Amino acid sequence: MKFLIPAAAGTALAFAAMASTASAQDCTFDKKAVDFEQADIDALYACVKDKLAAGYAKEGHEIGSVYRDWQATSTGPAAPGPHGDRFLFTYANDVGYAQYVKYADEGGFAMPVGSVLAKESYKLSKKGKPRNGPLFIMTKVDAGEADEFGNWVYSAVQPNGKNMKIKQSFCHDCHAAFADQDSLGYPDVDVRFSGD
Ligand code: HEC
């Protein structure tokens, strides 16, 4: 505040006061993630949005630096359920978007080859501060290239933009459970587009 001149001091103080009451405006949250309401979810995303994308893009990762030009696959990030601790928000590239947002679950379909899904993740620390998590990625490849993993290639980017080493089987063992959804988990039903 050393730059304040007396005449402007009152106004500046009024501004400072407004900023600190505008809730979670210092980005500290005093609720548990499971108790979040929509306004909290939005406020938290406003806190992390720019830093998340900047972090994933920092090392020029081929997906981490472009996925924000794609379309979001839900109305917004989903809050973690009782068993999860991460907030998640998935983007799809042009190849995969239309099929993905059908959230098809009756089998008999495959996402187009070249579809890429990128899922942002972040959580709250014990002190209620945002912590950026990895960007999780699935890329649909030609039949024969990754048969044992449903022709998906899994990858991830750390919040600092570095490539994250992962095991295909670790990711796919869980995703394979979504057998009638081409291995897709889809966003939480609360945030899916309604389709009308
Ligand atoms: C314990 C189960 C589990 C494991 C392990 C897991 N996932 Fe997922 N994944 C899910 C579920 C459930 C969803 C859908 C929930 C959501 O995104 O809100 C999901 C969603 C995704 C999505 C968004 C596309 C979709 O499926 O709808 C991507 C991308 C993704 N996971 C990548 C990965 C990667 C990469 C790994 C390995 C590092 C991984 N996952 C490991 C359960 C898992």
TrEMBL record:
Domain (Cytochrome P460): residue spans on this chain: 67-183
Span of the signal peptide: 1-24
Keyword entries, A-Z: Signal
Superkingdom of the organism of origin: Bacteria
Keyword field contains tRNA processing: no
Pfam family, one: Cytochrome_P460
Protein known as: Cytochrome P460 family protein
Lineage start: Bacteria, Pseudomonadati, Pseudomonadota, Alphaproteobacteria, Rhodobacterales
